[in-house]
Request: fold
Amino acid sequence: SRQLWWGHQIPAWYKDGEMKVQVTSPGDGWVQDSDVLDTWFSSALWPFSSLGWPNDTTLLDRYYPTNVLVTGYDIIPFWVNRMTFQALEFTGKRPFKDCIIHGLIRDKQGRKMSKSLGNGVDPMDVIEEYGCDALRYFLTTNSAPGMDLRYDIEKVKSSWNFINKLWNASRFVLMNIEDLKSREFDYSDLTISDKWILTKKNLIIKSITSSMDKYDFHNVGNELYKFVWEDFCDWYIELSKSNMNDTTKKVLLDVLTTILKLLHPFMPYVTEEIYSMLPVKEQESIMISSYPVFNKEEIFNESKEILEKVLEDIVAIRNLKATNKVTKDSLVEIKTEENLLKVYSSQLKIKQENLVNEVPSSLKSINYKSKYIDITYYFEQEEVDNNKILEEIEKLTASIERRKKLLANENYVNKAPKNIVELDREKLKEEEEKLSLLKNK
Reply:
């Protein structure tokens, strides 16, 4: 081959039947090789020439045209254009159905990686420290189509933390479902939290399938991150601990299996490893299992809306307790629906012995009331330290101001990962609520 290193062709010359490679003109007696093909032209032939063309082969019929070509915007005229016109000329068909155009990977300062700057990154070093899946997830989900990606080791660490969160959640599920022999569960036996997570699961399947079809992998990454970290790990697993019956175990298995399948294209090694440990699974390997599909029978909108209001209550009550320094031994009077009592009690750590109906007037009380709960905490009066309150108000005011400026920055809102932006919005709301409570003291 006369194609040397990334398409840089060096003229080949023949003399007396022996080929020599030379950069400068050889002089008399040498003839330039006429069979030298530009590397981009030969690459452009690949979709059909590698499948047996010009013969009418089974492989050509099955695999040509291809579904999608993935390329950087810097080689569109060199590769994509040549592939298109050569395919149309020689086969009469376009070589691919879709073309994904991605950006370039730059350093943290936005500079192109180069040897002269010394700002390149060896992927094998990153894989050695954080694993292949963390790097792969970061690269595939942290930029929109056509946009350059700034390499940031902190974001790779964030991906590693996400994988670690998934691994720990999977360990909890696996420890609790060892005795399962089947995956089928009775819909009539579902709790409100079971219905909530099944509804959220199917909504995420629907949304992610739509994004995958449009190659919006950054949206897929953001949605999966939020669903796995917040809905499944932070809420449903915690809710399941107070109701670990056979049905809830099967729901845990079902949702975890779905998560693994949805994440598999982005982190294949970890998901395959966890999938292999499931006690009941569809196939021996996740790679040959079916992709999740939307199931309208598992949509329980009313239960979803109720539980989401309940979870908002729980967050607000936790903030109220923290602000007023309410301890776990405080007396509690609670009024709520019977089917929600276990949810509130488990998440607010309310002990049976602390529930009361009548409370001495000498105790201080705070009340929280919403559509689904009326709860009052009774506790010993503490002296108010005005200096500490003023100090806390000052800190919260500064933090709120900083977050407001950050969220008013369109560049940050549009380019930062959606889950980070959403987290800032939630933190802002929590800080504003806490500040309001402190000012009313």
